[in-house]
Amino acid sequence: KLNYNYQAAGEKRTLQLNELEEIRNDAYENSKIYKEEKKSFHDQSILHKAFHLGQKILLFNSRLELFL
After folding, report:
1. In sequence order, which residues have a C-beta less than 8 Å from that of residue 57 and are 6 or more positions away?
2. 23-64 pLDDT, tens digit each
3. Is pTM beyond 0.70 here?
4. Distance between CA atoms of 27 and 33, rounded to whole angstroms?
5. Which of 9, 42, 47, 67 is deepest in the core (most CB within 10 A)?
């Protein structure tokens, strides 16, 4: 069935595009919220180290091998 009412078809297409854009924006916001929550959870599990002047510490390189 063909729709010869171009005005109504154009309005319907515009509404569909707006709905798709709203869905895309909602997905973006949800992923942003998830990322922030995941980062805050991860940051809570990180232990904060306090180093003092004269304290001896072990240094490791990126391959986790001890070097002096």
Report:
1. 51
2. 999 999 999 999 999 999 988 888 777 888 888 877 766 565
3. no
4. 10
5. 9
